[in-house]
Every structure is written in C-alpha cells, then in structure tokens.
C-alpha cells in the first residue's frame, strides 16, 4: 500500500520527536542545576524530574463532539486490534475509542484493572491535553490520533515532566499500558522514549528498548556538541556526560551478551542514573536488586556494578545447577539488577539522609513496577544492599507498602527501624553481613544496628572458611568494600539467599558443618 500524506506527516513527527528525545545541552557554569535547558529545542521526554505538578488521577475536560463510534481496543466483537492496520494507513491514525471519560476506580483490596481503563473514552481536543495530568492524560494518549501524539510530545514539556516527576501508581500504569493498542505503543515509544523507559508499571523489555533508543539519541546529540564553540566549563561538562553515557552503553554489552542485558531505567537529569539487568526480570523466577552505597555513579562505576551483577548471576546459576543435580528443582531462571537509580553520596554529603530518601523512593517505584507488570506470576524477589544503599533499602521496606522475599544488608550504617518486624520482608528473612575491619556496621550512624542481636536478623558469615557442599575454600571479606568479591563466603551466601536457599547460608557457627544439600527443608 502506498504511504498516504497523513502517514508521511506522522512518520516525520515521530522522527522529530525521537531525535529530540535525547537532547542534553552542555552545562551553563552559571546554572546551579548543572544543565542548561533550552525548551525550544529540548524534548519533554528528556526533562524528567525538573519541576512537578499535582498528580491528578482524573481530570475534568470540556464536552467534546463525538466521533464515529468504534469498539474499544480488545473489546466487543469483530476485528479487534488487527483493525488498527499498519502504521502507513490513514485509518490506523484514527482515535480507537470514544464515549465518556469515566472516573478511574480501584477495587477495594485489589489493583487497578485493565478493564477499568479500557472503557469508552472521549478523545479531547489536542489543545486540552496539556491541562490533563496523571491517569487521565495517559488514557488520552491511547485514544488521540497518532499524529497528534507526536505533536504533543514535541511541544509539551511540562505535561511529560509532571508524569515522570509525580507518576500514577505502578498498578494504574500497568493497566493503562495493557489497554494501549500496539500501533499507539509504537508511536509513544518512538516519540517519548524517556516516558516509556522510566514509567514504572510498563514491562521491562519495552522499557529497555525505549531507554536504549534514548541513550543512542542522547549520545549522538552530545557528541555533535563537541564540534560547537563551547567554553571550557561547558566542554568539560559535555565530555563528562558523554563518558557517562558511553559507560552505560559499554555495560550493556554488544547486544550478543548471554544472558541478555536490559536497560531498565535511564534518567538523564543531573548526574545520569541507570539500572541494568543481567537476565530478563520480566520472566525470571528469581530477581535480585543490588543497591550500592557512596561513590557509585554511572560515570565510572556502572560497568563495575554490572560486572558484579553478572558475577552474582553466575554464582546463582551454579548453585541452581548443583541443587538440580542433587534432586532439587531445576530449570529456574535468574535476573540480577545492577541498580544505580539514585544519586549516591560522597564525603561531603554522606552524613545526610536526603539522598537515602531519594533512593528509597526510586527503589520503591521500580520494585512496585516489577511486581505490577508481573501480575500473578511473581518472582522470588530479594534486595542485596551495601553501605548507604542499605539505609535507603531499609527505609523503603519500613516506610512503603511493597514486600520482598529476602533482604541482605552488608556494611550497613542502619536506619530508624528497630527490628526485622518493622520491615516488609516475608518471614523475617533478613540477613546481615559485617566484615572484619569494616567500621561502618557498628556505627549505627542512621539508627539501630541491624547486626545487633535485639534486631532479630539472621547472621550471614563473611569471614571465609570451607564450603562443605562444594568442598572449596572461601575467601574472607575484609574492610568495607569486599563483600561482592569473587570466591568470597559473602558472595556465596548472597547468591544462596537470593534463590531461596537461606538454610544453606553460613553463619560462622558449628552448625555450618551440617548445612548440606541433604539438610535443605529439614
């Protein structure tokens, strides 16, 4: 079929929005934010976290003339989603559903369902879209003509900023995304990759594709700026950001990595933050989040942290294979996530909890996004947190509503929680590791010491010794930064607790000699 004039306009708008989605300008030395933002040339999808507005789950919109009625996508009888046709047809650009915009309701005790979002919706006049927020705006993105979507993303930075700075709940996002027709998903992903890549509740493979597109476009733009007549400060900042994004690209591998790696988040505001998964967290039976402490950033440590996640992945696979050979369940899959989703502290601000609160909120959002998008197929979920990152994780599990299956805190300065009973961890499955010559754990700088007997956590030995199952000598972790070292007792134990084999985690007592495969489940 020959492309229509309308489809040509759509493709041009998508290309323009996509090319602008990664625009990052070199820093203006006079700008304390670190980035000079020209709203005439910067896409809304590159400005998350700048400013915020109230998150309105519903919005009042003026009455609109109805257009020809159609069945909502995925409902009624007839052609269903296939009726949308290929992107090159004019019919595919029409709004897919019409009617009245009902108030979004959440069933008591249950998540927002896709059915609650799919109902008939009025496609409002495009001029009204910037006045809408939250779920009401998301729903409009599913019913507007696709050419209007592309125009909207090019010209309305504030609306997208509000969605990312104060997003709807992960459950609402998941239900909305399930209701969006495939062709509309394609247009939204191409026109606003940062929105799709960082909206918790969208499945991770789709988020990764959007984030990798954003990463590529951002690098192209930044490298083009190096040919401009930049001042010394601007040039230095641009070079630093180029190197940070190249490090993220390098940590992802060449696309042929086994297992595959996924870019789960990419925030280009301030110092870039990112999360990279080794293995597919959307499908894995066991998912582990690795949370770093101070001095970790995407500019120099993302590759190292991803290598750590890969090392943990291999250790977990090794144990699953061994346990399978010994008659335990085999065939389970793994994903480990190198999460650098917050601005980690340095020496001048490590004494404050401000960045821990940022980490608390960012980690909560991503975990809730995973749990929402997985639906009934939930993995065994663990959080393995080091140093200042453990404080952020403890705060998240004490103050927010999500629950995980296991938590390990190592080299932890503590938090306000007084015991494992205050943490949303199933069955009190909390482990604590404290290495010799590590001054941080006993400091209790941010609250109670998780390693104190009164706290009720399980001790995880990191001092080295003999692994009686694999008959190999394990190295000790010494000081504050060796907990994830290869061949250490610490790494062994982290791998085991993350695959629901806490009974095999050594604690440095005589009972360690009895921790054999045969003892599992006794």
Model description:
The chain has helices at 5-20, 114-118, 134-141, 146-155, 157-165, 170-179, 182-191, 193-198, 204-225, 232-252, 302-325, 354-374, 388-399, 489-498; strands at 261-267, 273-278, 286-291, 334-340, 380-386, 406-410, 430-433, 458-459, 465-467, 472-474. The chain has 14 helices and ten strands. The radius of gyration is 24 Å and the shape is globular. The strands form two sheets. Strands 1-2-4-3-5-6-7-8 form an eight-stranded mixed beta sheet, sandwiched between helices. Helix 10 (232-252) packs parallel to helix 11 (302-325) and helix 11 crosses helix 14 (489-498). It is an alpha/beta fold and 522 residues long. The longest helix has 24 residues, at 302-325. Helix 11 links the parallel strand 3 (286-291) and strand 4.
Shape: globular
Helix and strand run: HHHHHHHHHHEEEHEHEHEEEEEH
**What strand line-up does the widest sheet have?**
1-2-4-3-5-6-7-8
Q: Indicate the structural class.
A: alpha/beta
Q: What is the terminal-to-terminal distance?
A: 66 Å
Main features:
10 strands, DUF1023, hydrolase, 14 helices, eight-stranded mixed β-sheet, globular, hydrolase activity, two-stranded antiparallel ribbon, 522 residues, single chain, alpha/beta, Alpha/beta hydrolase
């Amino acid at each position: 079929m020959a492309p229509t004039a309308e489809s040509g306009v759509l493709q041009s708008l998508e290309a323009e929005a996509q090319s602008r989605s990664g625009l990052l300008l070199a820093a203006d030395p006079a700008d304390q934010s670190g980035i000079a933002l020209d709203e005439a040339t910067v896409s809304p999808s590159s400005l998350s976290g700048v400013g915020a507005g109230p998150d309105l789950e519903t919005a009042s919109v003026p009455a609109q003339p109805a257009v020809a009625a159609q069945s909502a996508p995925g409902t009624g009888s007839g052609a269903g989603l296939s009726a949308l046709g290929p992107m090159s047809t004019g019919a595919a650009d029409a709004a897919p559903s019409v009617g009245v915009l009902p108030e979004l309701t959440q069933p008591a005790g249950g998540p927002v369902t896709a059915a609650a979002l799919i109902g008939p919706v009025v496609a409002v006049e495009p001029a009204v879209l910037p006045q809408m927020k939250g779920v009401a705006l998301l729903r409009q993105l599913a019913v507007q003509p696709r050419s209007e979507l592309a125009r909207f993303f090019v010209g309305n930075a504030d609306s997208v900023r509000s969605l990312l700075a104060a997003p709807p709940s992960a459950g609402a996002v998941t239900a909305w995304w399930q209701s969006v027709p495939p062709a509309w998903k394609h247009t939204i992903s191409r026109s606003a990759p940062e929105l799709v890549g960082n909206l918790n509740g969208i499945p991770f493979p789709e988020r990764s594709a959007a984030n990798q597109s954003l990463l590529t476009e951002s690098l192209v733009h930044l490298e083009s700026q190096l040919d401009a007549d930049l001042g010394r400060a601007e040039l230095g900042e641009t070079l630093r950001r180029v190197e940070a994004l190249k490090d993220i690209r390098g940590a992802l591998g060449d696309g042929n990595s086994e297992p595959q790696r996924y870019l789960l988040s990419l925030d280009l505001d301030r110092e870039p933050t990112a999360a990279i998964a080794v293995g597919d967290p959307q499908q894995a039976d066991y998912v582990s989040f690795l949370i770093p402490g101070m001095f970790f950033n995407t500019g120099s440590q993302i590759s190292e942290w991803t290598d750590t996640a890969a090392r943990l992945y291999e250790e977990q696979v090794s144990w699953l294979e061994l346990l399978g050979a010994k008659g335990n369940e085999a065939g389970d899959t793994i994903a480990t996530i190198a999460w650098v989703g917050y601005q980690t502290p340095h020496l001048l601000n490590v004494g404050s909890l401000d960045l821990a609160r940022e980490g608390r909120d960012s980690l909560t959002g991503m975990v809730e996004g995973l749990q929402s998008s997985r639906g009934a197929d939930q993995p065994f979920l663990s959080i393995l947190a080091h140093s200042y990152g453990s404080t952020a994780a403890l705060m998240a599990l004490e103050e927010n509503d999500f629950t995980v299956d296991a938590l390990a805190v190592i080299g932890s300065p503590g938090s306000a929680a007084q015991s494992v009973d205050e943490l949303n961890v199933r069955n009190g499955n909390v482990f604590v590791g404290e290495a010799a010559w590590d001054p941080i754990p006993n400091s209790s700088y941010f609250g109670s010491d998780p390693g104190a007997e009164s706290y009720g956590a399980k001790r995880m030995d990191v001092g080295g010794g003999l692994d009686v199952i694999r008959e190999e000598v394990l190295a000790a972790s010494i000081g504050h930064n060796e907990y994830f070292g290869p061949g250490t007792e610490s790494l062994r134990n982290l791998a085991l607790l993350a695959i629901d084999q806490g009974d095999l985690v050594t604690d440095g007592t005589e009972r360690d000699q009895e921790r054999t495969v045969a003892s599992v489940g006794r």
